[in-house]
Amino acid sequence: MAAPWVKEVPGAVELAVVVQPRASRTRVVGEHDGLLKIQLAAPPVDGEANAALLEFLAKQLGVPKRQVSLVSGDTSRRKRVRVEGLGAAHAEAVMSGAT
């Protein structure tokens, strides 16, 4: 069964994440309340945390940054991120192994 935080959409996958900005380092913590929890070293100022999140996910999933975009949650801790050209099974395996 797929994790509740990953959803396959046509041509892409969407990840439901909750971020914790200003952490000591950027890393995947695990599942929290049905969402993928990610700690970010960046502060939530001027979009720095969002940029750090997209860059971190692109690096972890092995895709170019241009394939990763924020769908919703621009100013919220709860966000939906779209990753183009990736399957849900691959995304779940990589992000689960990153904990």
What does this entry look like structurally?
The protein is an alpha+beta fold. The chain has one domain (6-97): Conserved Hypothetical Protein Mth637, Chain: A (2-Layer Sandwich), CATH 3.30.1200.10. The chain is built from two helices and six strands; from the N terminus they run ββββαββα. Strand 3 (27-32) and strand 4 form a beta hairpin. The chain is globular and about 35 Å long. The chain starts with 5 loop residues before the first strand and ends with a helix.
Q: State the helical fraction.
A: 10-25%
CATH topology: Conserved Hypothetical Protein Mth637, Chain: A
Biggest β-sheet description: 6 strands, mixed
Q: How many strands in all?
A: 6
How many helix segments?
A: 2
Low-confidence regions = none
Radius of gyration: 12 Å
β-sheet strand percentage: 35-45%
Name of the CATH architecture? 2-Layer Sandwich
**CATH homologous superfamily assignment:** YggU-like
What gap, in angstroms, lies between the N and C termini?
19 Å
Query: What is the 3D shape?
Result: globular
Mean pLDDT: 94
Features:
DUF167; single chain; 99 residues; UPF0235 protein ATI61_10134; Conserved Hypothetical Protein Mth637, Chain: A; YggU-like_sf; 6-stranded mixed beta sheet; alpha+beta
